[in-house]
Amino acid sequence: MSASARASAVRDVTASSVGPLAAILAVGLLLRLLFIGSTGFHNDVRAFESWTLTLHDNAPWVFYAKAGFADYPPGYFVV
């Protein structure tokens, strides 16, 4: 296969895959906008609030000793 034939094949695949990808992204955006007013999962939100208060009151290096249950890796909470 020549270089020009390969380039043509790549252009054909790229052009034909833009439509479905755009549709998937649009549906994902619409679903997120539909649920934007939701409060989320109550237990998860409470856990994040607890962890935030623990980090506020204590140094980061003692977080896991003070937090009780925390199943996220170190460094995640500063992101």
Secondary structure: elements and pairs:
Elements: H1 3-34, H2 42-57, H3 63-66
Task: Describe the protein in words.
The mean pLDDT is 81. It is elongated, with a radius of gyration of 23 Å. By secondary structure, the chain is mainly alpha-helical. The chain has helices at residues 3-34, 42-57, 63-66. It has 2 domains: 1-38; 39-79. The chain has 3 helices and no strands. Helices cover 66% and strands 0% of the residues.
Mean pLDDT: 81
Number of helices: 3
Distance between the termini: 48 Å
Q: What structural class do helix, strand and pairing data support?
A: mainly alpha
User: Which blocks of ≥5 consecutive residues have pLDDT under 50?
Assistant: none
Q: Which key features would you list for this structure?
A:
single chain, 79 residues, 3 helices, mainly alpha, elongated
What would you say about this model in short?
With 79 residues, the chain is mostly helical. 66% of the residues lie in helices and 0% in strands. It has helices at residues 3-34, 42-57, 63-66.
